[in-house]
Amino acid sequence: MKIGLYFGTYNPIHVGHLIIANHMAEFADLDQIWMVVTPHNPLKKKATLLDDHHRLQMVFLATEDFPKIKPSDIEFKLPQPNYTVHTLIHLHEKYPQHEFSLIMGEDNLKTLHKWKNFEVILDNHDIYVYPRISTEAENLELKSHPKVHIIDAPIVEISSTFIRNNIKKGKNIQPLLPSKVWEYIDHNNFYKK
């Protein structure tokens, strides 16, 4: 089975994440999408994250009606901070029957050369890239790499930061979240302080 790994802190997961994941599941040559909840991105402050189990629960609630999209807590069991290359090695050992690919936005492709062991990732895994609006000059040397597949997915500019900030301000951001995720956030009073 060909699995697309879509990593994120999902703090919280929103409709933009689901639009991208579903597009990859339906229009790329991937059998399933695993939404890998990242416990701690080395580039983000841990204090801004909800507990891992809450973010995983929101991904579960958001994806339960999408049979090709699965939540994954695979990184919860790995030493932190973790790097994508370590997760890929772990997944290959645990699920040798599957072929794993990465899903990322164009913004991440631009910085892939800064990732730990990025050459190993590129040598062994396909990368499916969805478009992002960018004001920077296009500097995508890797765009023509044989393992990189640019997917004509919808451009979605919704951010979890925007959602958190506006919940705190008391704004109605319900349309940006799957209804079960909104109910979970509201019930637990998340992001209000």
UniProtKB/TrEMBL annotation:
GO annotation terms (biological process): NAD+ biosynthetic process
Presence of keyword ATP-binding: yes
Signal peptide region: none
GO molecular function: ATP binding; nicotinate-nucleotide adenylyltransferase activity
Keywords annotated in UniProt: ATP-binding, NAD, Nucleotide-binding, Nucleotidyltransferase, Pyridine nucleotide biosynthesis, Transferase
EC number(s) on file: 2.7.7.18
Every Cytidyltransferase-like domain range: 5-165
Catalytic activity: nicotinate beta-D-ribonucleotide + ATP + H(+) = deamido-NAD(+) + diphosphate
Any matching Pfam family: CTP_transf_like
Enzyme class, UniProt record, top EC level: transferase
InterPro entries from the UniProt entry: Cyt_trans-like, NadD/NMNAT, Rossmann-like_a/b/a_fold
Pathway(s) annotated for this protein in UniProt: Cofactor biosynthesis; NAD(+) biosynthesis; deamido-NAD(+) from nicotinate D-ribonucleotide: step 1/1
NCBIfam families according to UniProt: cyt_tran_rel (TIGR00125), nicotinate (nicotinamide) nucleotide adenylyltransferase (TIGR00482)
HAMAP family the UniProt entry points to: NaMN_adenylyltr
Family: Belongs to the NadD family.
Function: Catalyzes the reversible adenylation of nicotinate mononucleotide (NaMN) to nicotinic acid adenine dinucleotide (NaAD).
PANTHER family in the cross-refs: NICOTINATE-NUCLEOTIDE ADENYLYLTRANSFERASE-RELATED, PHOSPHOPANTETHEINE ADENYLYLTRANSFERASE
Protein name: Probable nicotinate-nucleotide adenylyltransferase
Species for this entry: Flavobacterium hydrocarbonoxydans
Organism phylogeny: Bacteria, Pseudomonadati, Bacteroidota, Flavobacteriia, Flavobacteriales
